[in-house]
Amino acid sequence: MSRSISCDQHGDNAATFVCRHVAASTADGPVEGFDCFVDSAGEWQAICGACGETMMSLQDEDARDAFTVEVCVMICFGCFREAAAVHGVEIP
Fold this sequence. Notes:
By secondary structure, the chain is an alpha+beta fold. The chain contains four helices and five strands; from the N terminus they run E-E-H-E-E-H-H-E-H. The protein has helices at 20-28, 49-57, 61-71, 77-86, and strands at 4-7, 11-19, 35-38, 44-47, 72-76. Strands 1, 2, 3, 4 and 5 form a five-stranded mixed beta sheet that branches. Helix 1 (20-28) packs across helix 4 (77-86). The two termini are 13 Å apart.
């Protein structure tokens, strides 16, 4: 994990990127789908099922990039693990 972020709840921690629906799921409850992976930079990412479907439907790489910028937010690894737990996913 190469970037870091300061979180009010978890302090300085590794940065992760999630769709805004996954980010809200720690407060609002689980959303349908939780697709997570580690990108080529070693950073965790996750998107909900709806955002995943939208990404798959976009044929143009520029459109996918614009959609990602529009819906994704940076959260700390501690918050990421909490979001994963809400969805029944254990992150080491």
